[in-house]
């Protein structure tokens, strides 16, 4: 029967399938579509299962990860208003400096499972598995199941992806939403579907509500591929793009309107803004400020924690290189090869459309990251990982299909060669890390490159061995770093991947103060806020440890105008704050921190008596 169906025309094959006995649901899940090879669905299930293990194994070793966001999750479990606005504290004094979409997801888990390290980090891991599955599905639609598996595995084993899908920064949800949008654009481009394109716009709108304008970096590629390759008239293509833009605005704009129209006196201050405005935060501190620098947005030319020096090769440097660039040279070679070989294809060619989509995503995002002068951290590079993985899968598969041509073989050999050489360079940067590995990668890569150039692999068995060796060359270095990353605990605000990562850097890396005398003291309070302290990092640690709301005077950097001295005095007069905490030295702690913080600290010193609790100086504001 199988032989007969294989000889039928596509229409006749579907008619024959319509009269076939129904396949049990469990078998359909395990086997997949009848049109797929028998190995395709089992291989996908194995990939997803191994990804889940990699992302969840010993997950709670990192504690609460980034305590800044973990404290906001805790606050969201204690106050619905804090959940809605992404408040750092359940008393709703100030928000985190990002929109709250990622917090909405994490808080939902924490409300169901209870607030804990596991409930805070589990959503990130699940979003990582979902992103791998969606990337596989997207690439498979164009280049088949083998390419989809390669792309999914490449994303799963990117070190910075392992890092971010085991950590509670907003980047996990951002990547998932952007991959979902790419899937929708791919579906839209196949049949010129305005509906699928609008769904892509919705996904990008929520990406904006996750990490603001970074979610928009993929829009030029999405618009280009639909405008070029959708099989309909120019007028309809432009109309569909306009509808998708409206979907982006609606999906992001409803929340901005809600915040802007909500009376400022009954909601928390928008952390990171200068005017208590979410729109200003999007355009300023989290928008142009990240690209151009400015007040509160240093970073360009800083140390590795801030991305290193700006320039064209920044993604290959010491800050970003080992995070994401293992397969970046291969992706660039594959992109050039694919576009060259499809240069005479019809306008609607699906392979070229896919190359434009993922290539545009990669180039625009990489160039922005390379030259942005504001705050830049190496883990931002996770946004490049899906595009790199997709290009390697698509280009590698298409070149392998055309291996009968010397041109295709030589391009493929180039992908293998640059991967082997670059893996050697990255591994050599840490002389103490598996010193033998770089030689294995180069040796195998040299053999594979030679075979491809000469064209020795003429039999099926030889081809299978060659494919296995190619995968080994491409994946060995990045896989080793990925597994090592999953075995290391991470904390603080600037986590890094790889063997040199011993917990992350940046403010808040010291861990919560749970169990110390101050935490026990704060836990006994019954006022709206247990305490006030300068800076969000210190406030977050105290909140997690004591389980009570703490005002973060001045926000993340201590420079936000919240609360003002008058607001603080009014809260004290109303008996809403029990203690003012100074000292401790945990990133933003101590007296002052900004003009507002200095005014409040001075007023407290002049009007209240200090006592020592553990390593902190504490003022009882109810005395």
Automatic annotation (TrEMBL):
Residues 97-251 form the Glycosyltransferase RgtA/B/C/D-like domain. GO terms for molecular function: pentosyltransferase activity. Its main location: membrane. It comes from the Bacteria. The chain crosses the membrane at residues 39-57, 120-139, 145-165, 172-189, 195-226, 238-257, 324-341, 353-372, 378-396, 408-427, 433-456, 463-483. Residues 524-607 form the Putative mannosyltransferase YkcA/B-like C-terminal domain. This is Glycosyl transferase. Residues 501-513 have a biased composition (Gly residues). Pfam families: PMT_2, YkcB_C. GO terms for cellular component: plasma membrane. It comes from Actinokineospora bangkokensis. One of its GO terms (biological process) is lipopolysaccharide biosynthetic process. Residues 1-36, 493-517 are annotated as: Disordered. It is found in: Cell membrane.
